[in-house]
Amino acid sequence: MSIGFPIPSKEHESRRALLPSDLAVIERPQDLVFERGYGDILGITDERYTRTGARTGSRTEVLACASIVDPKVGDADYLGSLAPGTTIFGWVHAAENPEVADALTKGGLTAYAWEHLYEDGRHVFWRNNQLAGEAAVLHAFLCQGRMPQGQRVAVIGRGDTALGAIGVLEGLSANVTVYQRRTEALLRKELPSFDVVVNCVMWDLTRTDHILSRDDVARMRPGSLIIDVSCDEAGAIETSHPTTIDHPTYTVEGILHYAVDHTPSLVYGTASEAISAAVARYVNELSRGRHSKALEGGLIVRDGVPVRRRTPRSAGN
């Protein structure tokens, strides 16, 4: 079964799904087709891929493969043009994006979503999630023209993304207080005392309320900063909406909001290494057509028919 690796089409998405250093474990490298120039952003030549037995080809050739591996496949500009029966493997986020879900069903596609891949209770792409928190904090403070030192920071969440954010904040001498779902009311009570709020929660899409409403945001001190790493549209924070690397911030109620929706791409070299090590383990399964329990756990659509029935929540960006 052929597996294609297109250069991601999402703006400023520089992460790569599979690196030559991880191809040694691939049983049938001849099944892999990388778009020409795939590794250029990382200083990796096409020859380093073909030396392993893999192939390179045009974008058209890559997208004609039976399976497509793309970190931000849910944001891909080619999703609606794939042949029926094609399998996609990447961050899909169909639950959060009805347009993506519609493209999967109408196109008769099969989708394995990275946000739902877990092994032994741990998210497969946990390191990427940590990088999301780390990179978001660093970038957001640079956008504000400040350093975290001495800032009072509230972090919402205790998962991998929050751990990444907390590690950077404490390493740069911020004063960090951590909140979670059972202490949401306490956060709202103590909110005016903070300079920065960092949201890292895996948002439950069945909720119709917010951890912080617009009225709550208005109670923050003028000039404060919200770093919404989860960046769900009007999700945990009512005033949040996803932003881009080119235009990462906006202001509501006098509060600077940062909500870039793929911050690991800011550190694409480190992120690519972490992603590639994880993806390599599943390429053989995709090629053989025999899937582990972990990979089957990521199946959200088969031949255009939705298969997931659990509450839609997601991990990773």
UniProtKB/TrEMBL annotation:
Gene Ontology CC: plasma membrane
Pfam family, one: AlaDh_PNT_C
Keyword vocabulary terms for this entry: Oxidoreductase
GO biological process: alanine catabolic process
SUPFAM superfamilies hit by this protein: Formate/glycerate dehydrogenase catalytic domain-like (SSF52283), NAD(P)-binding Rossmann-fold domains (SSF51735)
GO MF annotation: an example: N5-(carboxyethyl)ornithine synthase activity
Start and end residues of each Alanine dehydrogenase/pyridine nucleotide transhydrogenase NAD(H)-binding domain: 140-259
Residue stretches making up the Alanine dehydrogenase/pyridine nucleotide transhydrogenase N-terminal domain: 4-132
InterPro entries per UniProt: AlaDH/PNT_N (IPR007886), AlaDH/PNT_NAD(H)-bd (IPR007698), CEOS (IPR046951), NAD(P)-bd_dom_sf (IPR036291)
PANTHER family linked to this entry: ALANINE DEHYDROGENASE
Designated name of the protein: Alanine dehydrogenase/PNT, N-terminal domain protein
Native organism: Olsenella profusa F0195
